Amino acid sequence: MKVVVDEEKCVAAGQCVNAAMDVFDQREEDGIVVLLDENPSDDLADDVRTAAAVCPALAIRIEE
Amino acid sequence: MAEADTLAPDEQIYHYQDDRDPKCPFAPPPKLRALNETAPVSRARIWDGSDHWLVTGHAAQRAILSDPRVSSDDKQPGFPYPNKPMADTAHLHPLTIFNADGADHTRIRRMMTRPFTRPRMEALRPKIQQFTDELIDKMLDGPKPADLVTSLSLPLPSLMICALLGVPYEDHEFFQEHAGLATRSDKTTEEQNAANEALGGYLARLLQKKMEEPEEDVLSDFAARIKDGDLTLPEATLLSMILLIAGHETSASMITMGTALLLENPDELARLREIDDTKDAQNAVEEILRYLTIAQFGQRRIAAEDFEFEGVQIKRGDGIIVPLPAGNWDPEAFPEPEKLDLTRKATHHHAFGWGIHQCLGQQLARIELQVVYGTLYRRVPTLRLAVDRDELAFRPADALAFAIPELPVTW
Ligand code: HEM
Fold this sequence. Notes:
By secondary structure, chain A is α+β, with helices and mostly antiparallel strands. Chain A contains two helices and four strands, in the order βαββαβ.
């Protein structure tokens, strides 16, 4: 699984961190998404899919 | 295909919005719910006799609230204002996080996001727990029955916003009273203006003080931006006021209404008391947020272009109303929506809205609710209403936030 985030679209709602905090973090200065792991392991796949699905700004894309 | 500009006869169109059923006061209004059985998009008539698109389906709400052709600009003619006072004052509204679109919205929002990130809110959990325990101690030491709203629901979010913004604790009563006044729909415009002015003056003075003596808080953050020339003092005052007001009634109402709802669902309440897994506790909060959807009166938008949507032709300048309770009770997204089920996967709810305007304070609200729901019913296992459920005075369906202004409880 490969994860791609769009910092321009991100609105810093924090939903991705809620869903998968091993994969996503928020930038100190303005809360914009920080991708911790571009290729998360299979056991995180469900959480990452949830993160993409709950992002209100549609800023997370998953390339299988 | 539905047509926007043919005016339907009065008796044929849905009048937004009908009242909740007093027998099921926590459920969305019956006619609104019935729309989930027919079409995801329909027409509705509002208080001034104008007709607008009503987007009720969960999937349709997601699509419309994240569509860049849809604007929040409340100065556009045809905007579906929630009520007359809002319509009358719209031309005076400065550009804020609420009514800005696109690049303007990004610029404003990014000045406000820093203090509300999930990691920062998580770090506040011990403080939220401490405030919650102290408020419950005080309530238990006081007379019975007690009003949960003044004992816990209102002071907790108020104390937290105080701490975050960096308002001295000794001023919190002034702060709480005026923030309350500024949002109360039963106050006159004059009373609200006076409260706003008092609050604005107070915050402006604090901002000036933080420019001299910065601390680790949001106001100092804004003060630094004033010094750097990114913000003017009036702009920073407005941002501070928005945070202060938006953070009060909403979280407070979720504490009050969540308690009333759980007391009516003893099996779910018993289940909640037993939860010790963090993820399960988080999910329980999401389900209560979904069920109550206290931002009840519909997000307001206006089409900035012509486009086809869900089989209807939306025209530039058409008003669009998105009643979040309807999406959160759409059986397609939440089977048997009337069932409060704390184990339901509910994270895709719209209680905090959807799209670029999704709630800025949601991570704070979530942790406040996780702490309160995880503490109150364990510490006070005999907690119950001190009046009949039928005696509770719910705010009407056209109040912006669904709430019970007073919740007498005993134990
Ligand atoms: C359970 C509590 C809360 C609920 C249910 C709630 C609900 C909402 C909803 C539905 C919106 C979307 C508005 C729209 O689409 O136009 C929103 C936006 C917002 N909320 Fe909350 N809210 C809560 C708590 C808070 C708190 C604690 C704060 C601040 C400390 C806050 C600050 C804001 C702000 C600033 C916005 C505007 C965001 C934007 O337009 O980009 N809210 N909230």
